[in-house]
Amino acid sequence: MLPNNRQSEGRIVLAPMEGVLDYHVRQILTEINLFDYCVTEFVRVTHHLLTNRTFYRLCPELYHHGTTLTGTPVRVQLLGQDPILMAENGQKAIELGSYGIDVNCGCPAKTVVGSQGGAYLLNSPELIYQIVTKMRQAIHQATPLSVKIRLGFDDKSRCMEIAQAVEQGGASEIVIHGRTKADGYRADKIDWPTIGQLKASLTIPVIANGEIFSPQDAKNCRMQSCTPDIMLGRGILTLPNLANMIRFNQPAMSWQQVIQILHRYAITQIDEAKPFYHSARIKQWLSYLKQHYPQANDLLQGIRTLKEQQAMIDHLTCALDQR
Description:
The chain is α/β, with parallel strands linked by helices. It is about 45% helix and about 15% strand. The chain has 14 helices and 8 strands. It has helices at about 25-30, 50-60, 85-95, 110-115, 125-140, 160-170, 190-200, 215-225, 235-240, 240-250, 255-265, 275-290, 295-305, 310-320, and strands at about 10-15, 35-45, 75-80, 100-105, 145-150, 175, 205-210, 230. An 8-stranded parallel β-barrel has the order 1-2-3-4-5-6-7-8, surrounded by 8 helices.
């Protein structure tokens, strides 16, 4: 049960993390945290209008009027480089019930950049402007339209141009990850002050993202980026109730509570899941958790060779029984 009274100001958004934050993880995290909204893994737009099935598969929340079962709004994220196709697919996502649209201009993955999507677009502020403009023309003016960017591709020399292209195209808000594509996820490269400089030149809301792993990080990020609004990504996987720790000053979840979460995920039946889907995702989650919970490393070692879903369930059940 989530508290009713907020103890910190500013919005907290659950980030899109390709290959990590699927529908089931979003559901778990939005049950134990109060988020203002969350964003899906990206829906790749290539050469045609996507089918309803594609949208429903990546965003089952569309079956529930665009919210998680606990009522957190969910925004579909689109990734592509054709302004017209992006706009057409954005319009379709809205018609299916998405809580606005998010445009991915920041994913640094090699496969994404190699196909001229995600962070590749940071090389062309004009194309970002065209995509956002066409998107805004296709959806109602009052419909939320956000764009997620980094501070640049190889360097930050065009960050102002990129941010202004987003605003001038008609976005209602911008999410800024405080690193360039070249920086990857290096902790020493995080640059919240530059987000603050960009915010000073914009009139739309700015959401700061990157390297928030604790309530103190959130405080520092808000202060240096000069914005109350933040987005949590890898940090929420390290501390599963991080949003509520920030918002309500809650203590970190106990390790036993974390095991309960992992067990719940392990028993989830996922349609069309690839072989060993559950084992790969749980191992991935444990690799984040061990940054805060030393016990996670022991558990990870114990399941490292396990692949079948039932084997994962059995091992986690034993871990629960050791309380």
